[in-house]
Each structure stands twice: as structure tokens, then as C-alpha cells.
Amino acid sequence: QVRLQEWGAGLLKPSETLSLTCSVYGGSFSSYFWNWIRQPPGKGLEWIGETDHTGSTNYNPSIESRATISVDKSKNQFSVKLKSVTAADTAVYYCARGRRLWGVRMYNWFDPWGQGTRVTVSS
Amino acid sequence: QSVLTQPPSVSGAPGQRVTISCTGSSSNIGANYDVHWYQQFPGRAPKLLVYGSTSRPSGVPDRFSGSRSGTSASLAITGLQTEDEADYYCQSFDSSLSTYVFGVGTKVTVL
Question: Which chain A residues in 29-68 lie under 8 Å from chain B, judged by CB atoms?
């Protein structure tokens, strides 16, 4: 059974860089894409980006200029950095495994998810 | 504003059937891209409920069923139970935005 666990700094000041890591326990790390998704307080879900075990990435165009996703396959971990954060980046950040029908990106869903980690941006 | 539109809330009595709609456009659901559904309880991570528009992961009760037609999709809950009170999100891919997109979420209340 695959389990994901996120961790990182939970309180940031505006203009700082958000940095989170997700560890993957169990299952194959190299067969999937690995995702970051966030949820602002009381709001819906927003996909940030994904990586595979080779470091190939895709990003949400709305956040691509500030986000960097990297992978450490030796540790079955992947990370996200988001620079120049503002209060609008305050959210619960989830990591999740991407599963695809026929290996096609357009048919991707997320399962399982990590428990989430809360990040607050405040001066 | 999400590209996938869901009603903010739906409600029903125990045992009843409720449906949650997810309306998209020609660049997502209408492009024949699958819709996936997630259930989220307060303070918890989302959990996959339906994938590939109609398939259920093992362990998900068959009270939950998904469908897709044209530019819309639906999640039906039959035999509504009190433990079904949660937020439900649809998700697909949008080719115009080149990103995975979520609906705004629907809160299900059991009366």
C-alpha cells in the first residue's frame, strides 16, 4: 500500500520561498507521475505541477513562473519550491500520485494523497 | 472561477438519491477527457471516489456511480447515508489551459 507524507516549513513571510518535500513509501516510484496540489482555506483544489522519476515536469501555467518541482529517486522523494510567496499562497499543500489511463496525461487522476501540510504566509 | 462548474450544495434525506453535476466545455469534458471524482471530509485529504468517469476503486461502495455525456459529468449517490456528508470535487484535463482542473466543489448535506 502506497503512502505519501509531506513536510516543510509551515510559516513564511511574504517574498520568502516555500519549500516542501514528499516521501513515498511502498509501491513503485518510477512508474508514476508525482504531483503537488494545494487548497486555500475554505476554497477548492488547485493543481501546481508534476514530476516523474527522471525529473520530467509539467506545471500549471498560472504558477509556473514561481514553481520548481524536483525529484530524488534515490530517496523516493519529490519536492516543490515556490518563490516570492504572498498571502495568496496560504493553503494546505498536498502531494499525490498521478495515475493515467494508457499512460496519457489527459486521462490522469490522483490517488492516493498525502495527509497535507498547512503553509501560512504572514508578515 | 473554475472551468468546471459544480453546484455549491446538494442535500437529501437518508436513503434518497442525489446527483452532483460537473459542467465543462469543449476543451475539457467535451474533448472526451475523463472526469474523476474525489470525496473530502473537513480537515482531511481528498480521497478518490470515481476514476475514468465511471470506474470505482476497490473499497468504494457501489452506492457511488459516475457518468459522462457531452460537456458534462455527474456523480450519483444512491441510498444516501449520514457518513456521505462531505465535499465532492470533479477533476479533468483542460487542453486550452494545459493543466488539470478541478470543480469548485459541492457540499452534500444529509437532512
Answer: 44-47, 60-62
Phi, psi dihedral angles at A66 (to 5 degrees): -110, -10
Whether the ω angle into residue A112 lies within 30 degrees of 0, i.e. cis, is yes
H/E segment holding residue A15: none
Which positions in chain A touch B22 (Cβ < 8 Å)?
none
Please check whether residue A9 touches B, CB under 8 A.
Answer: no
pLDDT-based confidence at residue A60 (cuts at 50, 70, 90): very high
Angstrom distance (rounded) from CA B23 to CA B51: 17
pLDDT over 80 at B49, yes or no? yes
- A35, A105 Cβ separation under 8 angstroms: no
* Per-residue model confidence (pLDDT) at position A29: 93
